[in-house]
Amino acid sequence: REMKSRYSDRYIIIDSPPPYIASEANVLAKNVDAILLVIGNGKTKRQSVADLVDLLGRKNFLGVAFNYFDIRSFQHFGYGKYSNYTQQYGTKD
C-alpha cells in the first residue's frame, strides 16, 4: 500500500518464487491489484496452471506470460499468413 501511494503514476511489479515452492506468492496475491503468471512453455502442465489460478484467485488474474517460447515451433503447424513471423522473429540456427 505504501508503494502504491508513493508511486501512484506507475506500475509496481513484484517478482515472487513459485507458489508451490514458497508461501510468499500466496500472501502477495492477496495484496496486489493483478497477477501475471510466468510459466515455462512446454514445461508447465495446463492443469498446474489452472490449479494456480484457482489457488491465487481468479479475481485478480491478469493472464499468462510464456517463458522459453520458441517461435520456430509454429512452422510445423502451418498457421497460414502467420508463418511469416517465424522468418521475421525466429532465432537463427
Structure notes:
It is a single chain. The radius of gyration is 17 Å and the shape is globular. Helix content is about 30%, strand content about 15%. The longest helix is centred in the middle third of the chain and has 11 residues, at about 45-55. The chain contains four helices and two strands, in the order ααβαβα. Helix 3 (about 45-55) links the parallel strand 1 and strand 2. The protein is an alpha+beta fold. It has a two-stranded parallel ribbon. The chain has helices spanning about 1-5, 25-30, 45-55, 85-90, and strands spanning about 35-40, 60-65.
Could you state the order of secondary-structure elements as H and E?
HHEHEH
Tell me the radius of gyration: 17 Å
Distance separating the two termini: 47 Å
Q: What's the main sheet like? A: 2 strands, parallel
Overall form: globular
Q: Report the count of strand segments.
A: 2
Tally of contiguous helical segments: 4
What is the mean pLDDT? Answer: 77
Structural class: alpha+beta
Give, in spatial order, the strands making up the sheet with the most strands.
1-2
Strand content: 5-15%
Share of helical residues: 25-40%
The parts where pLDDT drops under 50 for at least 5 residues are none
Summarize the structure.
With 93 residues, the chain is an alpha+beta fold. 30% of the residues lie in helices and 14% in strands.
